[in-house]
Amino acid sequence: MTLAKEIPTSLNGNLPNFSTEAAPVVSEEEMRQAVRTLLLGLGENPDREGLKDTPKRVVKALKFLTSGYHQSLDELLNGAVFHENTDEMVLVRDIDIFSSCEHHILPILGRAHVAYIPDGKVIGLSKVARICEMYGRRLQVQERLTAQIADALQGLLKPKGVAVVVEASHMCMVMRGVQKVGSWTSTSAVRGVFSEDAKTRQEFMSLIRHTPNFS
Ligand SMILES: Nc1nc2c(ncn2[C@@H]2O[C@H](COP(=O)(O)OP(=O)(O)OP(=O)(O)O)[C@@H](O)[C@H]2O)c(=O)[nH]1
Ligand SMILES: [Zn+2]
Asked: Looking at CB atoms within 10 Å, which of 74, 141, 171, 211 has the fewest?
């Protein structure tokens, strides 16, 4: 493993825990070897037929599950911010979340509800889901994921307010550890008018609880 002088520009600002000096560059082969070592440590034979391509598959899967480190808001937005004279709440509900907890690298499965009150600008609806994907496909804690989604929208649109609720089940609490099947966690991040005005916050909460008749 060597130390990079610079983080590739695509990662700038996305790797929270490395300074520019210390960002390690790890080859694909080194990553596969690490998975092979894990398999050996688990008492498996990494050379048996079913496992011989597993290191390659695991590295590919983990790279996909953390691909959000290589995205940027600019890129995913693709210019889809539009001037619109509205200040009514926009809510995108039930956005599925597939993230990975940073403590165990196990799945966090759930959904996000994202609302904002525009102040002259709206964003393409699909981009709200793409923002959730970008931050979801990183090693996360749910609280940070929720706040990052809220802060991204706040920064991009400078709206009157943003509210985000994430409801998710952590496989590290279900499949191992305390093993609480069916437990889930709700986190919220409110900015602007949603934090200042209880009525607006309540409207958001009641909209995310309402069951539409097409679902
Ligand atoms: N706040 C928060 N905690 C999380 C999240 N994901 C996992 N955790 C918790 O992180 C904690 C790590 O605790 P440790 O005691 O260091 O790890 P552990 O021995 O594996 O803990 P147990 O899960 O209790 O067996 C656990 O309580 C997890 O439930 C998250 O998104 N937010
Ligand atoms: Zn965990």
From this structure: 211
The catalytic residues are 101-104, 142, 170, 172
C-alpha of residue 172 to centroid of ligand 2, in Å: 4
Q: To test ligand 1's pocket by mutation, which of 98, 101, 102, 103 has the most ligand atoms within 8 angstroms of CB?
A: 103
What is 2-8+18-65's CATH topology? Answer: GTP Cyclohydrolase I; Chain A, domain 1 (1.10.286)
Pairing type for strands 90-101 and 139-140 reads parallel
Vertex 105, ends 61 and 94: CA angle to 5°? 80
Partners of 121 in the β-ladder = 83
| Each residue's pLDDT tens digit, 59-78 | 999 999 999 999 999 999 99
User: Which tens digits make up the pLDDT trace of 103-122?
Assistant: 999 999 999 999 999 999 99
pTM: 0.90
